[in-house]
Specification:
- With 329 residues, the protein is mainly α.
- The chain starts with a helix and ends in a 31-residue tail after the last helix.
- The protein has helices at 2-10, 20-48, 54-82, 85-106, 120-131, 134-154, 157-160, 165-185, 189-204, 216-227, 232-242, 249-277, 280-298.
- The protein is globular and about 55 Å long.
Length: 329
């Protein structure tokens, strides 16, 4: 009697949850697709907007994405209660396919930005060319590393306060929305090159407060204030576009997106490892210190040096696909 029961108990039940490895593989695949989509989307944005409108357009895109995420979290919670986690995921996947259909049928055709067959070799050569410029390397590192370390802080919200992680996440979203709005709409052109480093320092500084274990209202206020610093990415992206030939804009922004996602994952893993040997609060403060240190190291390479948002179209980099000798200082 007991033998068959044991054998039945060892079978994998129908409808059981997938393994963590399978879930990670799915998330990794989604990240790969997202980086490709970002390169196409942002490259298209740089084409259809005038030079002086890129920053505002990118800001509006970030604001729309942030608002959609906030609404998506709310609707997702309702769907989880009304259906199930699996039902909510399937509903989200169906809606995503619907948006893809709208994009396919609603967007007009445009000529390709590059000729010839796409290949991994050409992609690699273009990536090497982009990273061969020291100013562009500084821009990429500034968009990848300090932000990724702070995303590690955000990854610890649930560990830090399991019952109140929601308000902390909401505060981060609101702060990011404020930063994108202010940076894209109200920062004058003459100040844009000088604000990227202060905003990166703002992104990390308030998290030092978590070393003292602040109460929830103060912690949420610190997170909101810090997340305004995410507006630095818009300013550095504008700098990157000024340093990059127009035909390479899509690739340059796609590289930014893939590197950003990678560093966010690395930052979350580092923060989790530090939290295991210390505490979530101490780990958040340590990650903030690391972000400040990286920003200070990169700061000399982020000085304006006379770079103008018009430099990408001043004759060195033209929309006809040609480019003269590129400065790789």
């Amino acid at each position: 009697m007991h033998g068959p029961a044991v054998r039945r108990g060892n079978r994998r039940p129908v409808g059981s949850r997938p393994s963590a490895a399978a879930l990670l593989a799915v998330v990794a695949g989604l990240g790969l697709v997202a980086s490709l989509r970002s390169g196409v989307c942002y490259g298209l944005l740089s084409e259809i907007l005038p030079d002086e409108g890129f920053l505002l357009g990118r800001s509006v895109l970030n604001m729309a994405a942030g608002l959609t995420q906030i609404c998506g979290f709310a609707v997702g919670g309702v769907l989880v209660v009304a259906l199930s986690p699996r039902g909510a995921l399937l509903t989200g996947a169906a809606l995503y396919l619907l948006t893809a259909l709208v994009a396919v049928t609603g967007l007009s055709r445009r000529p390709p930005r590059a000729a010839g067959r796409p290949s991994p070799g050409e992609t690699w050569r273009t990536t090497v060319r982009l990273l061969s410029s020291v100013p562009r390397r500084y821009a990429y590192l500034a968009m990848w590393v300090p932000n990724g370390l702070i995303v590690g802080c955000e990854a610890l919200f649930v560990s830090y306060s399991p019952r109140h992680a929601g308000p902390l996440l909401a505060a981060a979203g609101i702060g990011m929305l404020i930063g994108d709005t202010a940076t894209g709409r109200f920062v004058p052109r003459r100040l844009r090159g000088r604000l990227s480093v202060p905003l990166l320092l703002l992104l990390a500084g308030p998290y030092l407060l978590f070393a003292a274990g602040p109460p929830l209202p103060l912690g949420a206020a610190a997170v909101l204030l810090a997340s305004i610093g995410y507006g630095s990415t818009l300013l550095i992206q504008e700098r990157l576009m000024a340093l990059t030939p127009v035909p390479m804009h899509g690739h340059a922004l796609g590289l930014h997106s893939s590197g950003m996602l990678t560093m966010q994952g690395v930052g979350a893993a580092l923060a989790g490892g530090v939290a295991q040997v210390t505490s979530p609060a101490a780990a958040m403060a340590i990650m903030a210190v690391a972000s400040v240190a990286v920003t200070l190291v990169l700061a000399p390479g982020l000085r304006p040096h006379g770079i103008s948002t018009r430099s990408a179209h001043d004759g060195r980099h033209r929309r006809d696909g040609t480019a003269s000798n590129e400065t790789c200082a």
